[in-house]
Amino acid sequence: MSKPIQIRRREFLKFSLKAGSTAVALGAIPITLLAQDDKVAEDEALSQAMGYVLDATKTDTAKFPKRAGDAGANQFCYNCALYAGEESAEFAPCSIFQNRLVAGKGWCNAWVAKS
């Protein structure tokens, strides 16, 4: 029979401290790094329901009149309050799509002006 493994209190505390600091460090990774290649596709069910398009100029304004007219022509993902990226970013996370990447020049019916 083998002997049970004994861990000294000091070793346990050192290990716990290392594990806790690793967890904190992993929690500090930005959302943009986690969602690097998870781009939202136009053919997904949620995308179609929201009218998401990679190029806002190709929005079906008959189906989504919010994008029609002069006011609608200035609506893009990059100037939406739900877009979590810089205005110049080609793709960035969007809270509507669970922080997956959307095109900065895209659009969807959930568009809300940044304040």
Structural notes for this entry:
With 115 residues, the chain is mostly helical. The protein has a domain at 31-103: High-Potential Iron-Sulfur Protein, Chain A (Irregular). Helix content is 29%, strand content 7%. The chain has four helices and two strands. The chain has helices at residues 9-27, 31-34, 45-50, 69-72; strands at 91-94, 100-103. The longest helix has 19 residues, at 9-27. The N and C termini lie far apart (69 Å).
Record keyword descriptors for this entry.
115 residues, mainly alpha, High-Potential Iron-Sulfur Protein, Chain A, elongated
Strand content: 5-15%
Strand order of the largest sheet: 1-2
CATH class of one domain: Few Secondary Structures
Instruction: Determine the N-to-C terminus distance.
Output: 69 Å
- Report the structural category: mainly alpha
What is the 3D form? Answer: elongated
Number-wise, the strands total 2
Helix content range: 25-40%
Structure annotation, total helices: 4
Q: Would you list the SSEs in sequence order as H and E?
A: HHHHEE
Q: What's the architecture of one domain, going by CATH?
A: Irregular
**CA radius of gyration:** 22 Å
Tell me about the biggest sheet? 2 strands, antiparallel
* Weakly predicted, low-confidence segments: none
- Reported by name, the CATH topology of one domain is High-Potential Iron-Sulfur Protein, Chain A
Q: Mean pLDDT, nearest integer?
A: 86
